[in-house]
Amino acid sequence: MQQILTYAFLVIYTVTILGIVLVIITDNRNPLKTLPWIIVLVFAPVVGLVFYFFFGQNLSKQRIISRRTRKRITMQLEEALDDGRPDIPDEHLPLARLLAATIHSVPLYGSRITPYTDGKSKMEALLAEIARAKHHIHIQYYIFCDDTTGCRLRDALVAKARQGVEVRILYDDVGCSGVKKSFFEGMRREGIEAFAFLHVKFPLFTSKVNYRNHRKIAVIDGCVGFIGGMNIADRYVRGTEWGSWRDTHFRIEGSGAAGLQASFLSDWSATTKRHIAGAEYYPAAERHTDDILQIVPSGPFGKWRALLQADSYAVSNARKRIWIQTPYYLPSDVLNSALQVAALAGIDVRLMLPARSDSKVVDLASHSYLDDMMKAGVKILFYKPGFLHSKLLIIDDSLTVIGSANMDFRSFEHNFEVNAFVYDREFTARMAGVFEDDASRCHALTPGEWFNRPRPRRWAESLMRVFSPLL
Fold this sequence. Notes:
Elements: H1 2-26, H2 31-43, H3 45-56, H4 67-80, H5 93-103, E1 108-109, E2 112-116, H6 119-132, E3 136-141, H7 148-162, E4 166-172, H8 181-189, E5 193-197, E6 217-220, E7 224-228, H9 234-238, E8 244-246, E9 249-253, H10 255-272, E10 292-298, H11 306-316, E11 321-325, E12 329-330, H12 333-344, E13 348-354, H13 360-367, H14 370-376, E14 379-383, E15 386-388, E16 392-395, E17 399-403, E18 407-408, H15 409-414, E19 417-423, H16 425-439, E20 442-444, H17 447-451, H18 455-466
Parallel strand pairs: 3-4, 4-5, 8-15, 11-13, 12-18, 13-14
Antiparallel strand pairs: 1-10, 2-9, 3-6, 6-7, 7-9, 10-19, 11-16, 14-20, 16-17, 17-19
């Protein structure tokens, strides 16, 4: 009997491995990704099965929201834009078309954008807008802690819910795994609708733990929105034990808020299976400036990786400068190569990283890329005063990109992210000034000091780079 069971187990096990190998082959992935998975599954099947379950599945053919619902939300957004489609400058028209084709991103005209570079000013601005809310408040964060900062926001939301304002919250189940259930349950008792995105009952036994919603969005009355890199937690306001928390967030007033609304309502529909519609969610937007922007959500579901493709295109077509702020630099080969080629071609390429991040492992992996970057002529800046968490990309004189996405594998391949692409010379000049101000507080890395770092450090960096797609 035992021999029969053993034989049956081996047959099932072998068929499972071969079946997964067949799935990987027929997915028509990049051979550089396909071959390692096959090798691991064949020669280390137990480890391979576990890693494939969590990190290897191809979700490009899956959906969390139907095409019909997505089309309905997009049409509702387009109908609300009574001033028609803006004329995109010729220099950015291909990029705008790319975003429209891959993620159905609509160009939005005339928004007033206010940047915030610290958590305190952003938090005060958000609370001020919430206090003025009349109809609805939509909140979406990867992290919504139950600390002092989180409780301030909770109390403000509860107060508005008691006044009859519709309050909806989406939070990430993994990002908020350390938050007490009573925190959100208390808000629900006050009439606030709060839901976890891709709820994870058993984190150790589901692949959903690897695909998280990293977006940070707030929309008030459909007129004002917030987007950027700051979550809701004390450290974003007060800083870390080794210094301040430097981040970037935008307040968007006007039609740009409608783009954030569409992103939120798509996630709301995917999470709750309820579609919210009505003109009150897309009020007529006043034109404040000549800015043109596109709100670009991206995620692991669907064929295209919109943010990776858009960033790669923008970098490849830069003519003057490429300035980057990111807390983690774990790029795709295509993007990494594009930045090096740009630097070799004489483009001013600057990469600003934190001198110390919140993860030593990620630091090591990120630093493994710097040798080749510096050899190509990329200027590396280490931000010294604290933790640089800003996600900023400046291309030439008229394109600024900000949002939730880091320049790493997880943001480009696994997470649900959202960025704003702003086409405007005056605004780009303003953000370039912010970058230069940060640069004055940085240590500019020299080839001599970097290439002479200890050999054990180099070995550790190379080892951690192997795991870059998992970090």
